[in-house]
Fold this protein.
Amino acid sequence: MSATWPGPRFRCQALIAFVTAIGLLLAACGESAWAGALLPERGGSPNADRIASLYTVVLVLAALVFAGVAVTLVFALVRYRERRSPVPAQIHGNTRLEIAWTIAAVGLVVFLAVFSLSKLSAIERPGPAVASPAAATAGVGYGGRGALHIDVVGRQYVWMFKYPNGAYSYTEMVAPVGVTVELNIVSVDVAHSWWIPKLGGKFDAIPGYVNHTWFRLKRAGVYTGQCAELCGRNHAQMVARVRGVPPAAYALWMARQKRMIDAANATAAREHRPAGAGRP
Ligand SMILES: [Cu+2]
C-alpha cells in the first residue's frame, strides 16, 4: 500500500479554508483587541479617536487590496503551473482588463486622498469649544468657551509642564476632564517627541520651534506615554503621564502647586542670601 498526496482540488480547498479561518479569527478578536498593536490607541481624546478611525479605514482597504492580489497570485501559480500548462498561452495584453485595474487603482488613491484630507483638520484642530458647567464653576478654561494652555518643555531626560498660573510640574501633567487643553511643545536642548498614544499623535519638541497639539479628556484617569525620539542615553527613562481630574480638583491642585513652589523659592532665597545682605 502506498501513501498518496491529496489531489489539487483538496489542496486548493484547504488553502481557502485556512485563509478564511485566519480572517474569521482576526475579525472575532474585534478592533479593540488590536488597539496599540495593529491599530492606534483610542478612547482618551477625540483627536486620538479620529486618528484611529482614519487609520482603520486605510488599513482595511489596504488589506482588501493585499488579499485580492495574493489570492489572484496564488490562483495563477496553482492553476497555470508548468505541469498543468506546459505550453503557456501567448497573451500580449487585455485592454479591457488593463483599463479596469487602472481606473480601480486611481479611484482608490483618489478616495484615500480626499477622505484623509477631509479628516485632517478635525485631528489637527479641536473645533468649536465644548461648554463645560464643571469647568465654568471651577473657573478653568473659561468654562469651556476657550482652551486651557499648558506648555510642554522637553529636556534631557524629563518632561516639564508649565501651567497658566505659573505653577509647573515634572513627568506628570495634571489636566481637567472635559476641557480642551492646547499644548505648546518646545525643547531646551535636543530633539524630543511628545507622545501619549491615547491622547493623539506624536509631536516633535525641537529647540527654537514651538509645536502645537491638543487633547480633551473624556474621563478621569492616568494616560501614559514616552518620549518618541531617541534623545540620548537616558531616553528610555523619559516617560510622561497625563492625570485627568475633574476641573475643580485641577484648579485646587494648580493653586496648591503654585503655593508650594512659591514657599520653596522663598525658603531657598532666605537660605542662600549672602552673609550681610539685607542689613542696613
Ligand atoms: Cu527621548
User: Anything to note?
Assistant: Residues 192, 227, 229-231, 235, 238 surround copper (II) ion (CB under 6 Å).
